[in-house]
Design a protein that fits this description.
alpha+beta
């Protein structure tokens, strides 16, 4: 039998090289640090990366922390912490078949979104954005003003990002006009009343992107931007918002239309099972107050009837109903009710026709 030794040697060389390549692993990945403590402002920190891999893959467990490659370093930074508590995240860096986990923590802020500013005793607004770990930020004023934006809509002052510059430029353009207070009353109010005549005062009218940011924070969301749109993503902030409804109903005419008339007639009323003297009901009113907040629901109702010939009588009940906190956006008309889960009894029913307006 003739055997081609060249073929045997060639096959042997291929098998040998393949086995050697599978067993050999010279890749390595080393980091100068794996525990990172960021300050509340989120100032960036650098970690030196030693690896022979050409590319890295970086992932983070939370969207508030950002990790990016810069040459042979991994840069870790974060947005300013918005709450008064430390937060934590994990970053994983993968190079070839090696990986290293980095634990990241960020210090608590000295201010928090949703808090009154400067304090609860004398608040002038509510904090909706925290910067520099609480040293700076943005607040929404408690003051309100109704007025005209202006006469000229072609001012060229149209920044979608910088409301402070827009406000300053508008004031600069029209503050010397004799009719500034009437023709551009909103800017006059900002300039004279809020900023005391300071052209560079701290109060301003927000730009479009700032209004979007404020809205998303109010409904408990953060945002990311694409080329054409703003997208809402995961829950990040929450401001304690209280929604309060007050109702007052005159019941006498409604009850009469339902056929309940005798009790309102001095000669026909018979309340002998309730009082000893001759009485009738002169008036009947119902008042209800319902307050929704992140702490729960508080509701109170009073139905009073004015008695003639004796002291008035009334009925009142007040109760607190603790509920689980949820984040819901009410932007369409809705009906609400408060019901006892055990008995199924409905305690309160109400409706809101224009949830986007302050009534």
């Amino acid at each position: 039998m003739n055997i081609d030794m060249r073929k045997i040697i060639f096959i042997g060389m291929i098998i040998g090289i393949f086995i050697y390549a599978c067993e050999k692993d010279d890749s390595y990945l080393e980091l100068s640090e794996t525990e990172i403590q960021l300050d509340a402002a989120g100032a960036e920190q650098y970690i030196q990366v030693n690896t022979n891999a050409i590319t890295w893959q970086i992932s983070s467990s939370s969207d508030w922390v950002i990790a990016e490659r810069d040459s042979c370093f991994l840069v870790i930074k974060a947005e300013s912490n918005q709450v008064r508590s430390e937060r934590n995240a994990k970053i994983v860096i993968v190079a070839d078949n090696k990986y290293v986990r980095i634990n990241v923590s960020q210090a608590a802020s000295t201010r928090a979104v949703g808090e009154p500013y400067p304090d609860e005793t004398n608040p002038i607004g509510i904090i909706y954005k925290v910067l520099d770990g609480g040293k700076h930020g943005k607040i929404l004023s408690f003051d309100e003003f109704n007025g005209k934006w202006g006469l000229n809509s072609n001012t060229g002052i149209r920044s979608l990002e910088d409301g402070k510059s827009n406000t300053r430029d508008m004031i600069n353009a029209y503050k010397d006009a004799a009719t500034f207070d009437s023709d551009y009353s909103i800017f006059w109010w900002i300039y004279q009343e809020k900023n005391n005549g300071d052209i560079d005062g701290q109060w301003y009218i927000p730009a479009y992107s700032e209004l979007v940011e404020l809205y998303l924070i109010l409904v408990g969301q953060s945002k990311t931007t694409t080329t054409n749109a703003t997208q809402t993503v995961s829950v990040s902030h929450n401001i304690n918002i209280r929604n309060q409804f007050d109702y007052q109903l005159k019941l006498k005419d409604d009850l009469k239309r339902l056929g309940i008339t005798s009790v309102f007639n001095e000669k026909k009323a018979d309340l002998s099972n309730m009082v000893t003297s001759q009485n009738y009901i002169d008036s009947a009113e119902h008042k209800a107050n319902i307050e929704f907040s992140n702490e729960g629901i508080k509701a109170a109702a009073v139905t009073s009837t004015g008695g003639m010939g004796a002291a008035s009588c009334g009925y009142e009940h007040l109760f607190d109903v603790p509920v689980e906190e949820v984040n819901i956006t009410f932007d369409k008309p809705y009906l609400f009710l408060i019901r006892d889960k055990n008995s199924g009894e409905v305690w309160f029913v109400g409706s809101v026709y224009e949830p986007t307006k302050n009534n």
